[in-house]
């Protein structure tokens, strides 16, 4: 991701999609594909919530995001594997890193509760 594009040669103004078979273009396309696979795993997470009858953990935002993102990321993987559209995936990945870091700390037990003061900011960040 970052080392394949955004921290190297990408332009913050306008980055066209490179559909060549250059090593850089293929590296970006591979990153976009990996992002697509991550969105499939998140959709499966939602499916497992339903199968385990834990519907109360599925909000409208969760359902909307985890069903829509695999479709959008599939389209990006197939038709636009690079360019400025990758910034959306970069931001989304950053939000998920923060979110899953929170879940990890919350699962580590009561002695980590004092470090979870930032829970209220996660939903705002997701929006």
TrEMBL record:
It comes from the Eukaryota. Keywords: Fatty acid biosynthesis, Fatty acid metabolism, Lipid biosynthesis, Lipid metabolism, Membrane, Transferase, Transmembrane, Transmembrane helix. Its EC number is 2.3.1.199. One of its GO terms (cellular component) is endoplasmic reticulum membrane. It catalyses: a very-long-chain acyl-CoA + malonyl-CoA + H(+) = a very-long-chain 3-oxoacyl-CoA + CO2 + CoA. It is a multi-pass membrane protein. Pfam families: ELO. The keyword Cell division does not apply. It is found in: Membrane. The keyword Membrane applies. GO terms for molecular function: fatty acid elongase activity. The chain crosses the membrane at residues 86-105. One of its GO terms (biological process) is sphingolipid biosynthetic process. Its main location: membrane. It is an enzyme of class 2 (transferase). InterPro entries: ELO_fam. Belongs to the ELO family. This is Elongation of very long chain fatty acids protein. It comes from Timema poppense. The lineage of its organism: Eukaryota, Metazoa, Ecdysozoa, Arthropoda, Hexapoda.
